[in-house]
Amino acid sequence: RDVRENHKDYNQVVLDVRRSMKRFPKGMPTAERAVLQEQLIDIILEVLKRNPQLHYYQGYHDVAVTLLLVVGERMSIAMLDTLSNFHLRLACSHSR
Fold first, then answer.
1. CA 11 to CA 67: how far, in whole Å?
2. Per-residue pLDDT tens for 1-38?
3. What CA–CA distance (Å, rounded) separates 43 from 74?
4. Nearest to 44 by CA among 71, 65, 72
5. Handedness of CA 26, 29, 32, 38 (dihedral sign)
6. Which residues form the Rab-GAP TBC domain (predicted)?
7. Under DSSP, is residue 95 helix (H, G, I), strand (E, B) or coil?
8. Quick one: which of 16, 53, 54, 81 could link to 92 by a disulfide (CB 3.0–4.6 Å)?
9. CA distance 34 to 67
């Protein structure tokens, strides 16, 4: 909770994740999607907290939700961290 409320990108992450309903499988129960959306917010903010040189950009949540749906929350953090630092670094560091 502390990471959420104090992170500079929190508000934008929440807005984008809340609008990401189309990224979840059709027919997924609303309650299950809501849990995954909360996990998605946590994943994104955790990776950004670990890497203060990176910045959130629109579309970053699309990468994160794909990882979340395929490998789960814990592995998503590790994979998103690696992707952000090696493959998405230019987008994450020049978006502002």
1. 22
2. 556 767 888 999 999 999 888 889 999 999 999 999 99
3. 8
4. 65
5. positive
6. 1-96
7. coil
8. 54
9. 16
- One-letter amino acid for residue 81 of the chain: D
The predicted model scores a pTM of 0.86
Q: Contact at 8 Å (CB) between 88 and 63?
A: yes
- Which residue reads 């040189």 in tokens? 53
Q: What single string gives the DSSP state of each residue in 14-56?
A: HHHHHT-GGGSPTT--HHHHHHHHHHHHHHHHHHHHH-TT---
In the block, tokens 């189309």 appear at 22
Say which residue the tokens 């990176």 belong to: 54
Which structure tokens are listed for 52? 């203060």
What tokens appear for 66 in the block? 């794909």
What tokens does 70 get?
A: 């395929």
Task: pLDDT band for 53, please (50, 70, 90 cuts).
Answer: confident
